Amino acid sequence: MSSQPQEETTTAASGVVADDPSEVRRRYLASAKSLVVKLGSQLLSDKEGRLDAAFLTSVATQVAELKSRGVQVTIVSSGAIAAGLRELNLPKRPTDLGMLQAVAAVGQRRLMDGWAAAFAPHKLPVAQILLTREDIDERSRFLNLRNTVNAIHAFNAVPIINENDTISTDELVKLTFGDNDILAALVTHALRADVLCLLSVVDGVLDEAGQPRRVIEEVAGARSLVRVDKSSLGKGGMNSKLNAAQMVTGSGEAMVVAHGRMENILPRLLAGEMVGTLFVPAARKRAGKNRWIGAARPAGLIHVDDGAAKAVGEKNRSLLPAGIAKVEGTFGPGDVVGIVAADGTLIARGLTNYASADIERIKGMKSPQVRSLLAEEAYDEVIHRDNMVLE
């Protein structure tokens, strides 16, 4: 059990809320009715690197307590590959894709066995959901994820979500999700959960003196505090948690990073105790469509000049043909595309009204020229601001 950390004393200039941290934490955590909890590979393993059944039992007890109080809890669980390595007595993670997928297949069964056993004393069944990146990119599948999870909760079961390492390729080789921190953020998007809780082996974001920040208002203000590191079993570090925080808080939900081995951590967090780091949500919640736009991978990129970048990024304007400098990739009307500034920064993404071939024809043109060229097929905006999400 971790020792009680010092109180927060820093100001909002470093990205930390200047208000009373305990009051801020109660405001966003005590009223939560839906929670996504992510557990990393290192946290789920014992000292020998095996799946820690006692720890899973502890988590299940906490989840059962929250469910008895009317809180919906969805678990995003790492650990399939780590469990497979131990089950097969392999000394290290394979680099060959087929071997890695086989390890995940063996480990996923072992992982779900562990969760089922942990929840059995509480008479709570568990439901396995395996996701690939395409399940987020395609809007109908993104929406169906929410419907499925809600139906699982209606049966009083506990959804256990993991990356589908057994059939995916991008996630294992190119790390398209990045890690389960990002997967958990995307699940939070889909479910519109009140809080994402990333349980790890550290007590939140630490300052230069090694003390945890208790409340962070601006994610950008905390990035200078973070070391880019990762565990031997997991794929992510604190930097990926900040990326997840940017996604979640930007949509209007809270996120917490906390030490998963702290005794009774989940009920303590929702009671507003000063444990872990709370990332404060944006004042406005994103609409459902814009949540998906912000989560989906762009099918292509539209490069814009400085004037268009300022209009989109600072003035919340639609993207017009006149400001477009270059088109990258092949896409059709209605696809999600990224808007890239002249310096290469992705500033927004949105639903395009035009196919990539048509944008090539009209880029740099004023609206009257576009209407003259395309007639009834012309739109004033390439991407309307209502169908756009800023990064």
Automatic annotation (TrEMBL):
InterPro entries xref list: AceGlu_kinase-like_sf, Asp/Glu/Uridylate_kinase, G5K_ProB, Glu/AcGlu_kinase, Glu_5kinase, Glu_5kinase/COase_Synthase, Glutamate_5-kinase_CS, PUA
Localization per Swiss-Prot or TrEMBL: Cytoplasm
GO biological process: L-proline biosynthetic process
GO CC annotation terms, alphabetical: cytosol
Pathway: Amino-acid biosynthesis; L-proline biosynthesis; L-glutamate 5-semialdehyde from L-glutamate: step 1/2
EC class (word): transferase
Keywords on record: Amino-acid biosynthesis, ATP-binding, Cytoplasm, Kinase, Nucleotide-binding, Proline biosynthesis, Transferase
Pfam families tied to this protein: AA_kinase, PUA
GO MF annotations in UniProt: ATP binding; glutamate 5-kinase activity; RNA binding
Reaction it catalyzes: L-glutamate + ATP = L-glutamyl 5-phosphate + ADP
Residue positions binding ATP: K38
CDD domains, per database record: AAK_G5K_ProB, PUA_G5K
Enzyme nomenclature, EC number: 2.7.2.11
Binding annotation for substrate: S78, D165, N180
Ranges for domain PUA: 300-383
Domain of life according to the entry: Bacteria
Entry's family note: Belongs to the glutamate 5-kinase family.
Entry-linked NCBIfam families: proB (TIGR01027)
Purpose: Catalyzes the transfer of a phosphate group to glutamate to form L-glutamate 5-phosphate.
Protein name listed in UniProt: Glutamate 5-kinase
Organism: Humisphaera borealis
Species lineage: Bacteria, Pseudomonadati, Planctomycetota, Phycisphaerae, Tepidisphaerales
